[in-house]
Design brief:
24% strand, putative xylanase like fold, disordered N terminus, 21 strands, alpha+beta, three-stranded antiparallel β-sheet, 15 helices, Putative xylanase fold, 32% helix
Amino acid sequence: MRWRHGSLLKLYLSRPGPSDMKKINSALIAAISSLLFAGTVKSSDWSEDNIFLSDHTRINLMQALQSKTSMKHSRPYTVMDVRQYRQVFAQSRAKIVEILKLARPYRHLDKNVQVAFIVSQLADIPYLYSHAMGEGDWQPGSSVYQPGFMHVNQNPVYRLDGLDCQTFVQDAMALLYSDSLDQFDANLLKIAYGAAGNPGGEIVRYYNRNHFIDADFNPVNQNHGWLTDATRSGPLSIYAKTIETTVTRQKWFSRQLQNPADHVQVLSESAGPGMVKRFRNVYANLEFPRFNAEHIRLHYIPKESIAILQPDGSFRPNQALLDKIPAPAVLEIVRDADKWNFYGIKIKNIIGSELAVSHLGLLYRQAFNKGDLIYHQTSCQFDALYRKVCSVKPVTCQKAKCTELMYAHATDAYPIGYYWYQSSPGNYVCTPRQPARGVAYTRCNRVVTMPLYDYLTDYQAGAYWNMNLRSLIGVHIEKLA
């Protein structure tokens, strides 16, 4: 039953004879590569033993395979709805101003309280499966928004109609360190860009974006003084292990050239051909330091050190270790690239590079009184007809005082297309059924918060999913300044 979710694709792959397998494998790599870059297959789908491979992903994979290896589009670029772009960006900027205004009374308080407030303002924003960030029409050399420039990818630089795990962290950090919209703009660019070293003073470029968390995001923000590696030194160092990986940015960019329409997203028809030419010519030869190959050595805390396996197959928290974790912080999920694969194909052969971090979110400590809601625990199982059925249970503080190490992140762990809403006072559901007219709702896949230990020992489909995932080996922690 563990493989039933992928049985259609496995059947498809089992039918060709040996002489056809090389061609089929090439098709599979091309199909998955395109879907990964387009955002339709996310990190939680990137494992050969993931029973929660979504229906959406399976359908896209089958359609991609059936259309052969190239997945050719009618034209090598995509024209966006410029009116929608402007509306989303304007509304997001207005929301940023509102959050910054509401945050003023918290500025003198502990950083954990500030982060908790910011998380509360971003909570329940839907997860975006693709194009959560682009360069918009932002002038590349400007630290604050000035419109009118053409980019390879013109999705908004930031947006609050939807978030993925990285844009959630970036936006939250920029909110934490800013008091005005102009300051937010400048800080967001510092947080999200810098991979190429801002050549020529140009910040907002696709090639300069911090695409790789381990190789770009962490060192760039360490240099700005906003992050400090708390895993390598200090009280956590006695638990730490290391993993090495090789990031090959040039191969990663080159792999995207196979399906330019997934990446060249423009605001006008006239901009399309020029941006395709730029993407094919410039991005084929990015002569920046480290862009050919960079060897990364990342420290991590093994997941087994945080959640200790018991004789009955359950887990208990290593509270002594959890108490040593600094907060607030950015917590990153660490993978072993040799074990991280999709239907037996290693991640580096799909996207053109290894990488050690597949997911990230924010850590902060929060105090609760007896009876306070800590979070809603959502658990999804398969019923007798193999339909995904999710139950939601409120988890409350059972002591006079509870202090929890909370993990906030934008998740895509739940079934795609499921709705999240209050079905009755105090009762929430994660369901494929749309709510009644007038009932406020979001998606089950959204910005959520739960204790870190509960995240690691999340129980789905009859298994401790994160603890059982072979490629997921631990967590890396970067303390926020």
